[in-house]
Design a protein that fits this description.
Elements: H1 2-19, E1 39-47, E2 50-57, E3 63-71, E4 83-89, E5 95-100, E6 106-116, E7 121-123, E8 127-131
Antiparallel strand pairs: 1-2, 2-5, 3-4, 3-6, 6-7, 6-8
């Protein structure tokens, strides 16, 4: 009787393990659209009484233009007011530059927004410049 019970239990364990599906392998998410990888650099520095913002984009294909903005407020605050400093059409090169001739003194946060041909946008990281009183 013990032998039949042990064999029955062993068979149940074997079949329950065999019936359990193997876990699916996770496939890594791939960037399907390589044309829009994003910004590879953003730099801002003081020049004279103004500031110069320069950036590079990993691939200019599919980008219609760039918008440069600044704020003196907290850049992480969703209610911060961003003022457009300039804009540039995408000419196919990988690096661009814009001058802000009239910044107010203080710490100024700059960002660049890439406008894609499909209407979506990609925001750059924020770069900070300190402008002393003029």
């Amino acid at each position: 009787m013990k032998t039949i019970t042990i064999l029955t239990i062993s068979a149940l364990v074997f079949f329950s393990i065999a019936a359990t599906p193997a876990p699916e392998k996770e496939t890594p998410v791939k960037n399907v659209n390589k044309a829009f990888d994003g910004f590879s650099s953003l730099r801002s520095h003081r020049q004279g009484k103004g500031a110069v913002i320069s950036w590079s984009f990993t691939s200019a294909s599919g980008v219609s233009g760039f918008i440069v903005q600044r704020t003196n407020e907290d850049p992480t605050d969703p209610y911060s007011v961003w003022v457009t400093v300039g804009s540039q059409a995408c000419d196919g090169s990988r690096s661009y530059k814009c001058c802000d001739e009239t910044p107010t003194p203080g710490y100024i946060n700059y960002r660049v927004t890439a406008v894609l041909n499909n209407g979506t946008t990609i925001d750059s990281p924020v770069s900070v410049v300190h402008i002393a009183a003029h």
